[in-house]
Amino acid sequence: MDISLYSQLFEPSRIYFSEKRLHHLWSQYLWKKLHQSTTGQKISIISTGKHNDNEGPDFLNSQIIIDDNYLTGDIEIHFDNHDWYYHSHHKDKKYNNCILHIVFRKVENTDHVLTENGKKVPILYIPYQELENYPHKTKCRLHTKSPDEFFHILEKYGLLRFNKKTDYFFKQSSRFNFDLMFFWGIFKSSGYRYNQENMVKLFLRFPWKDYFNKKLLPEKIEKILFQLAELEINNKDEYSEYLFTFDPLINQYIHKQYNNIINWTYSRTRPTNFPDRRISWLTQFLKKYYNDPPTKMIFNMLQGNNDWSNQIGKFLTVSSNKYWQRHYRFGKETEKTINTNFGKGRRDEIALNIILPLLFAYNLKNTENDNFREKILYYVKNRKLTNEYNKIKKYYNKHNIPIKNKKRKIWINSQGVLYINENFCSQDLQELCPICNLNKKGKDNEN
To answer: Which of 22, 112, 275, 339 is most solvent-facing, going by the fewest CB within 10 Å?
Structure first.
């Protein structure tokens, strides 16, 4: 497979606006401005129309003036202009009365979209940067009822977030094998917070086709990965000289010009998690599972054992490179011995965010073992985290959930907090938030 296709594996970092947020901004602010179509026609909005919560266009019976022409009909809103065809609106009669298609990101040059009956619908393009000009006005309605009811909702939406991850792997498996997706997740997780994108870029540079076809010598993987990473080495020593010495067997994989430039981050990163050390761990992991497909390996390990935490720990433990037991970066030796493997907290994160969603999809596609999927769901619903994320801690504290409440530490509840924050809090959608609607008479609290 062409390496360029691997970029489709991961969801690129971009500004995200849900359709609900787009509808809100359009009906509250954006319609009041003078606009132009992509062909330069002046557009004035007389009425945004009625917001449609059912199937069909987003706003019904809208009134607009394009140049000097008064039109009444429906309006459809998308983030990307190709979504009109992606969602098959051009084949759906319900969209035949559309008079305007509003988009916030252009991905192709076009001045209209077509309806099912062949009518040309003009496009109003608003750069997505404009969406950032409108402040969030969300007020959280503080929870005052039973904590059990509060956590019941968090678990529900946490499972929804988990299911989105499993669904993502399941859909991608029609194009990519599970082992490739597994390594993508491992690379991404190895970047922690500030080097995630950099690790994904490194993943894209690695010659996966030759790795899976066993054309790479395992002993060469370390050199290849470090040379592809293009780390800045200020203190050279014998080990770094060895890694970066010219080698004709690996030179074919090293290119001097890449489209994806990597700028490694060391600030705000713990020394034990510096990219140099994580790349070393990745080389050992790639060598460990060179002959044993990791997805099938961990699947078999967990199927025959109930102590999943211990099994996953063994699976993610690799042979230590003695150099990195004494170094945080190249050329700087320390007196104390440093553990080169992941700690318990990071192993849990990898298991819950990558391994188990991927195995759920793998099981669904290959074995359809209902019992194994039930065990996965039981595990994620009961697994406790070592530490709370700051964002989640603030959310619990704001809603007056006692610090001693054990359900604060359960991972699936933290996923529920993240889902609600991403889809309601950050989108100014208090009226749709399940937590706010638990107690509509509760005290409002500005975010």
So the answer is: 339
